[in-house]
Amino acid sequence: MRFCSLLAILYFIYAAECANILFVTTFSSISHQKVFQPIWRELSLRGHKVTAITPNPMHEKSLTNLTEIDISFLYRLHGKLPNEWKVFLFRKPNFLVVFLKDFLANFWFSKNHSKILENSDVQKLIHGESKFDVIAEWLLPFGGAFAAKFKCPLVGITSLGAPVASLDTVGNPSHPVFSPDYNLPIGKKLSFLDRILSTLFSVYTKLHHQWVLLPREDKLVKKYFGDDMPYLGDIQQNISILLLNRNPVFHRVMPFVPAVIELGSVQSYQKPAPLNEELKTFLDKSENGVVYLSFGSTILSEDLPDSIREIFLQTFSDIPYNVVWKWEGNELAGKPKNVFTQKWIPQAELLNHPNVKLFITQGGLQSMQETIKSHVPVIGIPAHSDQTFNVDTAVYHGFGIGIDYEYLSVETLKDALNEIMTNGSYKENIIKMDKLMRDRPIDGLKKAIWWIEYVIRHKGAKHLRSPSLDIPWYQYLLLDIFAVIGVVLFLFFYIVYKLSLIFVKLLKRLFSKVLKFKTD
What we know:
alpha/beta, Rossmann fold, seven-stranded parallel β-sheet, six-stranded parallel β-sheet, 20 helices
């Protein structure tokens, strides 16, 4: 009887701790969603009632505590790429284009946010009676509006690192030299030109965030949530913690305030989807080894400019290895006999196949994590966001070769391909990297869940708030101190200067009197 009573007490305690959680994700990319899905799935399995706004619902009927609001229509908004945009999107941005890309990307995000808020299911959620704890994808502060609406703690999360403006919302220090924005096309070691770019971009992104993005997003929020909503710039600074899917072994080492938590990495909860019979047979028969080519889920291979596609075709037709190419279009014109194409490939399972020896990738973080886990070296051809840094990390640690699109040719691609396929050091180095990244005290998913429930238990985490958030900008930049020191130094040197003039005049008078006395 006592035992039953104890179980009942424990049950009610557990039930009392279960929360009603809203998980807001807005970036329409399956690689980003793969990081978030395990988290809201695990929260649901732990008894929390979870509502996820997502472009990639899981539709798992066994998760009775999970409600998914489907915003997959975002994928259809992308449309077909105009030909003139293809070269622009596939090439790593230069000094000036990086600013234009960031400006256009943020404008595109705002357009998506408007479509999300127009959704009837999202509107029912906003104007309903339910109360939530909110977890929001934190590339932009848009998701924070839900926390303000429901007057609850806010947890921010990203599927990679965080841009400088997002780190600013938790008062995290950022320095353009040792912690540049992850969107910049620069690697681990910064040249003088890189340092100039990083400094200018840091200033630009802070000003753009404050004077362009926040007013635009705030106007959008008030349109759909109501005019009584606080200013979005104030909402964003009420974030409790920020969870980052980054690993300090792989990523740039940088200082973080207590409210920023590095998860290490969050792996997919799902077992890798099996390879279809045709693809599996092709891999099994590829005794010389297989090269895998994919540009991820955001940019499609079929959108490659014709000149770049021709380089791949010519190269593949002249190598002794088979190739698996994630090709999303119809029949690939001019496809060599040793090339196998498929619109969608279960990447994790393919990389685990023993005959796969090399991965040609754009360098997205999830692809890099999967290939490191499978011990498959890379040729990285970066185009945007953190891809340049990721590829440079592979080069730095000796498990990959990087090629920029402007230097991509049949010769450079073939040389890089033959180097990795015939040099065992790349394989050895990626195994070392995997061991380093796996050696951590707690799994990334468990760490994320613990911190989310920590915020829920304590109804926020104001005790982790950085004091820099409550300091005026001029005090943060020490302008008042420099001003006082400048005035003091000016007065000191001015007084010294004036005293020197008086002293010189006295000396002159004394000297003239002495001369006059001697002449007399």
